[in-house]
Amino acid sequence: MRLAERGPAVIDDLHVLPKARDSWSHLYVEHCRVDQDLKAIALHDAEGKVQVPCAQLSLLMLGPGTSITHAAIRVLADHGCLVAWTGEEGVRFYASGLGETRSGANVLRQARMVSVPAEHMRVVRRMYELRFGEGLPPDMTLRQIRGREGARVRDAYRRMSQETGVLWAGRSYRRDDWRNADPINRALSAANSCLYGVCHAAIAAAGYSPALGFIHTGKALSFVYDVADLYKTETSIPAAFQAAASGEVPLEGIVRRTMRDVFRSSRLLTRIVADLDRLTEGVTPDEDPFSAETALPSGLWDLDGLADGGINHANPDDEDELPW
User: Fold this and answer.
1) Which of 264, 224, 209 is nearest to 99 (CA)?
2) What is the gyration radius of the CA atoms in the chain, in angstroms?
3) Is the bond into 64 cis (omega within 30 degrees of 0)?
4) Span 187-244, pLDDT tens digits
5) Are 161 and 236 found together in one domain?
6) Which residue from 10, 191, 277, 280 has the fewest beta carbons nearer than 10 Å?
């Protein structure tokens, strides 16, 4: 079946962020060749060819045994699709491309929030409030908040174990001993990997940095882990327990398809982008020096604000005095 072809994505106003809500969530592929096919991409394997309308895709996860052409990467980038290189069944993350956003305003605001303790704490509290679905007492310490979060997650595991009949003995994940892990822990790792990928795609599309986390820190995907934690108890945890309870194999494939259905039914991409706006609402610099047309040359940092970019700042009258 030949899928409908769509033209290249065009952004008339570079200030407008890509609309992740209009896209599919993710696609995982392995043991195939990916190349350009007109304005789309095509997947080739021993069974034939499948065309993918990448204008509708937010994240393409490339597993083992895949090769991709330069032309395919170019058309994916033109359509704002994030490409990630992952391990088998998508359970490890190696590298990724860039999102489509051309403005640096959100990532610079994020850097400020991470760096200013009062704003950092305000975002942390908003994250926990969004996750719990309730306000937190103003005098609750960060240690107390973490304790509440841990109790909620423990209860979520226990509840799903009771509902599905899957034995739960605690979270255990070792990258060097993956196959010897029990089914529920393998299912959780596979489900979380899908969730991380979709959160990463939304973060990149909205112009934030995946590395600048507020709760997690020190990793290239710290903010991805922060954002993914907001949705685990309603997405990856139930999906993993349901897949493990089904007894179907291959387990990781069942998990990925279950997560795909969850993402679609919950319209998670729409929610992530909206929640990112809620987390950063009201936490902005006094002046936004990046409101100028982003297609123009980048501004230059200066103690007094921004200096004009794209021009030579040398003074022709001082040329004879230069040491070189």
Assistant:
1) 209
2) 22
3) no
4) 999 899 889 988 887 888 788 899 999 999 999 889 999 999 999 999 999 999 999 9
5) yes
6) 10
